[in-house]
Design goal:
The structure holds two protein chains of two kinds. Chain A is an alpha/beta fold. Chain A has nine helices and ten strands. Chain A has two domains: 1-75 and 152-243, 3-Layer(aba) Sandwich (Rossmann fold), CATH 3.40.50; 85-150, no CATH class. In chain A, strands 6-7-8-3-9-10 form a six-stranded mixed sheet, sandwiched between helices. In chain A, strands 2-1-4-5 form a four-stranded antiparallel sheet. Chain A is globular, with a radius of gyration of 18 Å. In chain A, 47% of the residues are buried. The model of chain A has no long low-confidence stretch (mean pLDDT 90). Chain B folds into two domains: 2-46 and 179-390, no CATH class; 55-165, D-Maltodextrin-Binding Protein, domain 2. Chain B has a four-stranded mixed sheet, with helices on both faces. In chain B, strand 1 (57-61), helix 3 (67-75) and strand 2 (79-82) form a beta-alpha-beta unit. In chain B, helix 9 packs across helix 15 (360-386) and helix 10 packs antiparallel against helix 14 (343-353). The radius of gyration of chain B is 30 Å and the shape is elongated. Classes of the chains: A alpha/beta, B mainly alpha. The A-B interface holds A 45, 48-52, 69-71, 73-74, 76, 78-89, 93, 97-98, 100-103, 129, 142, 145-146 and B 2-3, 6-7, 10, 13-15, 17-18, 215-226, 388, 391.
Chain lengths: 243, 392
């Protein structure tokens, strides 16, 4: 469970995020949808605690991200927008490194790495150095790295950026599998179709504010449009130069 | 503690697999100094030791005007070549390098010499060329010797004791010990040693900060439940490990070079054996965390690998400043100077080279000030890593 309660963030005189509230529930995929520059990344960064909110509160499994940072982070896996890997390390070493920083012991790490390799289909390249990996392979390693400590919650910032159709498809399958395990998944995207294809709940953000939220169906109904895409455009309609 | 070890191990291993880091940290950095030093000293030996054995080569124009002088020069084993030059031609020949040193005896030499008046000769040499400058000095020395010999004869002929022309007899007493004399040459050995320390950590300091940012792995790392101080500490520790390795290789190379460079022939005894090297290592050890912290600190503020490289290569010159300052003002070891890192290490190593005793307090102050500054830098770096702007 990931909660944003009246989150705000000011950079100097700019309000990047104002009064954003929503909850991403366990066993659901929640999509943070909005055009580029709407404040999605800023919002997520406050949720995983690398930015301090100017106002409001971020909670993971009821733990305040600011007050109980380490405990909250232990419940959280993060795949940031830039999910770079260490090129001179093997896939396993990349995963192990984050695991040991989560305080996992050798045995547990080994078991978990084997599980992830099987689940994400990485058995063929676990021992190879990451340098020269395809984008799809990199995403798998980055995802495994985010999941190494078996977190109940997962935040992904634009995870499909730069992936080809095959890789996007396998990422979707992986996210569905994680959802089936009862995890809470929150991801951001500026691509309508992606959100429509995957999400149980949608939070539409524009200019740093929540413009609409609910299930894709309820959003469509409320805006009286046929597709989610039309609803999205209509909701953002008032805001210049978007979509 | 285990997180600190994890960060250390990862940085250590990752850079061990990076060819650029390895070459610069464990090869170019540490070997640059010893090789350059060996080459320079060997060259100096060639010039200052081998040369006096060689005869002075001198081109003479107008020999017929000064047969006495020519006989004297030949008796002093100068190798003379006779060739007629005008002043202009002589100037051109020396400038173009066709001749090194040219002596022109003009026509009026003979009459003036016979009349007991100062007889002119012209000596052409290029003082900007260190090789010909030396030959010119030797020629001048020979000419002066001839002149004073003739002067003494002239006085004796007139019944005056030549001793009258020497009212003061100066006797030089050089108190420099052979090792002390060597210190002039060895002065920059200490800089090379400090340079190798910094070179050892250069790429690791960049890779673990700006590199982490450029690869895009920083944000994932910062979202882990690990204190930023642990991250910074692990990275600095790994940098220290590479610096120590570089320092050890550098000192070993110096010991080897000193075994092959015959410093005794320069009238110096360079005592850089294994024992001295061990003492150097101990003296430089507190400088290692300072260098690592300083480089990590600076690199943490940079946005890219290239930017970090620009700043850090400039940083390599920082230890020279106090050392250059010290040699300009010829500072002697003083307790107050032990507060200045790099200068204190330089002075302590110089003392070891001169075989002078080192006060325990000096060694402690040197180590303490370096470590204290390192600690401050680590804290400031950690504070920077805690800021949100670290991600920007």
């Amino acid at each position: 469970m990931i909660e944003a309660a009246a989150l705000s963030k000011r950079f100097g005189t700019v309000d990047a995020v104002s009064d954003v509230s929503f909850a991403a529930r366990n066993g659901e995929i929640t999509g943070l949808l909005g055009p580029n520059g709407a404040g999605k990344s800023t919002c997520l960064r406050m949720l995983y605690g690398v930015l301090t909110p100017s106002g409001g509160c971020a909670r993971v499994d009821g733990l305040d991200v600011r007050g109980e940072t380490s405990a909250a982070r232990a419940h959280l896996g993060v795949l940031p927008h830039a999910a770079g890997l260490y090129n001179n390390l093997t896939a396993r070493e990349n995963i192990d490194y984050f695991g040991s920083l989560h305080g996992m012991g050798r045995e547990r790490l080994e078991r978990r790495a084997a599980e992830l390799a099987r689940a994400l289909g990485m058995e063929g390249f676990m021992e190879r150095r990451v340098k020269g990996f395809s984008q799809g392979q990199r995403t798998k390693v980055a995802l495994a790295r985010a999941l190494v400590h078996d977190p109940g919650n997962l935040i992904l910032d634009e995870p499909t950026n730069g992936l080809d159709v095959m890789a996007i498809r396998s990422l979707r399958d992986m996210l569905r599998a994680l959802k089936a395990e009862g995890r809470c998944i929150l991801f951001s995207s500026h691509v309508m179709q992606e959100v429509a294809a995957l999400c149980d709940r949608v939070v539409i953000i524009g200019h740093g504010r929540v413009l609409a939220q609910g299930t894709p169906d309820s959003i469509r109904e409320r805006s009286g449009t046929q597709s989610l895409e039309e609803a999205f455009l209509q909701i953002l309609g008032g805001v210049e130069g978007m979509a | 503690m285990s997180a600190l070890l994890a960060v250390f191990m990862k940085e250590f291993l990752e850079n061990l697999r990076d060819r650029r880091t390895l070459l610069s940290a464990l090869l170019f950095g540490p070997l640059f100094g010893p090789i350059l030093f060996g080459a320079m000293v060997t060259r100096m030996l060639d010039q200052s030791v081998a040369e006096p054995d060689e005869p002075l080569r001198l081109t003479v124009s107008g020999r017929e005007h000064a047969p006495g002088l020519i006989r004297y020069l030949e008796s002093e084993r100068a190798q003379l070549k006779f060739e007629s030059f005008s002043e202009r031609a002589a100037r051109d020949a020396v400038r173009s390098g066709a001749a090194q040193v040219i002596l022109i005896v003009p026509e009026e030499y003979g009459p003036r010499f016979t009349a007991g008046l100062p007889a002119p000769v012209l000596l052409f040499a290029d003082s900007a060329d260190s090789q010909t400058r030396k030959s010119a000095e030797r020629a001048r020395h020979l000419l002066a010797g001839y002149g004073s010999g003739v002067a003494q004869l002239r006085l004796q002929v007139r019944g005056v004791s030549p001793l009258l022309t020497v009212p003061v007899a100066v006797n030089d007493v050089d108190v420099a010990t052979p090792t002390g004399r060597a210190v002039g040459v060895l002065g920059f050995v200490t800089y090379f040693i400090l340079f190798s320390v910094l070179m050892g950590g250069l790429y690791l300091a960049i890779d673990s900060t700006a590199g982490e940012r450029e690869r895009g792995s920083l944000e994932a790392l910062l979202s882990l439940p690990v204190a930023r101080g642990i991250l910074v500490g692990g990275k600095i520790l790994a940098t220290c490990a590479y610096m120590c390795a570089s320092l050890a290789i550098n000192l070993t190379a110096f010991v080897v070079v000193f075994r092959f460079v015959p410093l005794e022939r320069l009238g110096m005894s360079g005592n850089l054996g294994a024992g001295t090297a061990a003492a150097f290592f101990a003296i430089c050890l507190p400088f290692v965390p300072l260098g690592a912290a300083l480089m990590t600190f600076v690199a943490s503020f940079t946005r890219s690998y290239r930017e970090a490289q620009t700043y850090l290569t400039t940083l390599l010159l920082v230890p020279t400043l106090p050392i250059a300052f010290a040699s300009i003002y010829s500072l002697k070891t003083k307790s107050s100077l032990m507060l200045i890192p790099s200068l204190s290490q330089h002075l302590l190593m110089t003392s070891v080279l001169k075989a002078e005793p080192i006060a325990l307090i000096d060694a402690l102050v040197s180590a303490g000030s370096s470590l204290a500054l390192a600690l401050i830098l680590i804290l400031v770096t950690t504070r920077h890593w805690r800021r949100e702007t670290m991600l920007a």
